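User: Can you fold this complex?
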Amino acid sequence: MSRGSAPPRTSSRRLRRSVLALLAMTGMVVIAACGGSSSSSPKPGASKSSNSLTVWVDAARLPVAQAYVKAHPKVHVNIVTFDGDGNGATTMQTKIQLWNRTGGGWPDVVFSEQVNDPVWMAQKPFEFAAPLKGLIPDDLLSKWPAPSTAQCTINGMQYCVQDNLAQVVLWVNKKLMDEFGYAVPKTWQEWAALGQKVAAEHPGYIVGNIGDSFGHWIYLWGNQCPLEQSQGSKLLINSTDEHCTRVAGLLDPMIKNGTVPPLSVFTPDFAQKYGGAKDKVLLMPGPSWYAQALFDQTLHIPAGEITAAPPLQWENETPITTGQVGGGPWIIAKRSGNLTGAADFVIWATTVFSPTGKDARPGYPAYAPLADKWLADLAGNSYFAADPTPALKAAAGQVWSGWTLVTYPDQPVWSNTVVTQLVAGKSLSSLMQPFGDALAQAAQASGYTVARQ
Amino acid sequence: MSPVRAQATRTRSLRAARGLPFVLPYLPFLVVFGILPMIYALYLAFTTDTGDWAGLGNFTRTISDYRFLPAFEHILLYTGVWLGSLIVIVVGLALLLHGRANRVSATFRFLFYIPGALAGASAVLVWLFMLDPSVSPGSFLLHLLGSQLFVESIAPGKLPFVFAMIAFWTGAGGWIVVMYGALNTIPHELEEAARIDGAGPMTVALRLKLPLIRKWIAYMTILAFATGTQLFVEPQLVNQASLGLVPDTWSSNQLAYQMAFRYGDFNAAAAISVDLIAIGLIAAWLIVKRTGLFRTGD
Amino acid sequence: MRLGRGIRFIILTAFAVVFVVPIIWLILAPTKSDEALVTSGPFGFGSLHQVALAWQHLDAFSDHIYRAWIGNSLLYALGATAIVLVTAIPAGYGLALSSFPGRRLVLSLTLVVMIMPAAALVLPIFLELDALHLIGNALSVILPFAFFPFGVYLAYIYYATAIPAELLDAARIDGCDEWSTFRRIALPLAKPVVGLVFFFSFVADWNNFFLPYAVLGDSSQYPIQVGLSNLLSSTPSFNPAVGGGGQQVGIFRPELALATLLAVIPVAIVFLVSQRALVRGLVAGAVKN
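Assistant: Here's the predicted assembly.
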């Protein structure tokens, strides 16, 4: 095939200039419009009048919003469902950035599944969250457990209330424990000893797992490992603190003997090996919402087997502290045109809304008076082998408050530097140093000044 | 044999400016949703968040980020794997399809294409199961590659290949359709003439058909290179399917996205995007030069 | 020759299997319960009753919002594709068969914009749409979708390689002006590329997640892809942080599989329709050398 010679150029300067002029003209219209945007009126979405509200919720919180609408026929509520920032999504960051840039469109109330969302929402460059002081009465706010309030307090001001608590307890398969004749462990040491025993007597059964992206919240948070601890203007990240290394040393033999596999409970692989008919989960330290979300709906473990025991304790050290996996907060927008209405919504959603039975709230209510009602309902649930509520209730106030929530997500760091290496055969003890290094990098990239000792 | 048609087309048919009116309706869209946003992105790359001139500040700042170099290593490796397999296999399959009875080829094209209809969430679901040896229909393949567990299927060393496979699975079918359409523009007479001259199907495919769809291949290469270096969707969805085991800053484009929306640093994000587009442009320029993509008479 | 054909068929079939196996898995997924999905074989068939159950749960999600999402996607994709067809096909024709000043500029800019990373364009486009007071309006999705440089290039390369200029010259000699040459000769001959542009534009719009995700602020306006991502994060096994809302929401993996499958149907239909345009010999028959 012969190559065509270059096309003859018939270009005339006049025409080229007119094309450019046309391009410029089209562009100028838009630029002119862009320039005018800063002075334009508030966009739809932000509520202007006193009886309209825009709320952003995840699918699990939709029933609350709908119930509020039903109970308040005079208030016009615009409900928007979104992914709740779950699963590492940055939906709220994206949206708030864009709203801030255009100077409008903010909703009045947001529910997030990410417990650390309020931390960045309260600070630059987002500056989205409103301080709750004066919006929600102090006597109501005081009924949230202290660790929960602490997590919503950023630079001395409270910016959110948690919808539910996600305190870690020890989940127990009572049927199997009875069958094997084991006593439920009270301390991490007893738990580890039992792990050795299970490995020898009933290989294939497990007493926990460490492959989830939140594994460090279960094993390290509860054991007071200072991986993110606010110290004045600095953030302490000391992954080789004794509180960290001693847990790692305890876990290593169990990871090796298979009683604490480095697998995620949410993978099909895990469900096939340990769930359903196999029924090989003997014990599992995990958050309160594991109750049905994990054992019933994901692993399909039959009814009448599972119950909860109090969180494990380090030897005889007191006070007992535990970890946390979740705890979604409600946030009121600073730029809301209807702060009173927004506050009313949040108060109603957290302190009033309390259906029972199959419509019951999905997580352990953070507001203590409602928790009692919710627990009473749960106690009668036939799924459990024994009443799990005393353990859950006890753990609610035990979440270690030395763990400061931060603006960056730490789960990916844990997954990438620790979980993948555990699978490859490394020991947890050997990974604590690199884990700390990686956390420090992530913290610095988010603007923190990091202290390592 | 081929110059017959080339000669005919070389004469310019529409004279000069007569083509312009046909392009006009497209121009406002190009300007408003293409060029202006691009200029704004360039502006962001060279300014600070307060709008002051930043020079190369955003570029040096992002290059020194600890995730920058690993991300670029990842995408270069990935692009190599992806581009090579895409061009060879897509052109190969399109040539194999071309010349089969239309109904047979239509069936195959449909089968090749249909994964392309699965985007985002569907792909997350599918790949979570496909990559988990305990439930995957292709578990023997995964075992062969040394994966007994889901986590091993997405071990860091395997990721460029895993992503290339996913991208190929969803993207190849579309390009096969384009190439097939391109091959259809070759007149029957040319092929028959070649056949009468004694050329076998291989010769016809490589000597006659391949050169005639050169522009299409060039176009595909440019876009495939750009989409390769701008890899975003595949690592993002494996990140979701693995609940965070794969970092959300695996590729450069993901890093740019995180910069913009997690840290609110649009200037850094724009700088990374400019790096990426520079790479894409160099590749595009080389390809356009070598293949004469912009020539009218050919 | 016969042996060659056999090999050809085997290669094509082998690749087809690779492409189709995951799809078959997905088609079978809604017939099983969430538990059976993990425990039974990948190609096991559950029951149609499960499909009906899955549909009930899916349809009940957020008061039938799934239907609205599909409707929105149809509106956005068809609306934008209609504009693409009237802008991209003539543009490709003009760019291929004339050399007006600025032609190379338009071609180059189109290409440059095409290889611009999407993450960099979201903010500027959002600011523009806001300036035009289109945020929250269906046009905020349709107009950016209607800019489809890929289609312009498809049309450009098609006209540049497949339509002989002499044919158009002949038309002009017959007294056609530029417009009627295009309409009577070039357009009918472009049937295959119209099919391609229609198809690719529709699919690109249907599958686009990022733009509507950024610009739309109301869940009842979401297109299906944004909706599916919402469903994904409502599925407990994909989003543990949901904190045990699974029972209330009722979306599990089989429901998700069904939702994604139903969302594929329009694309499959458009594919089949547009592929009928991809027939051979349209051009060849028109020119007699």
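The first helix of chain B runs from residue 3 to 10. Chain B touches chain A through 56 residues (CB under 8 Å).
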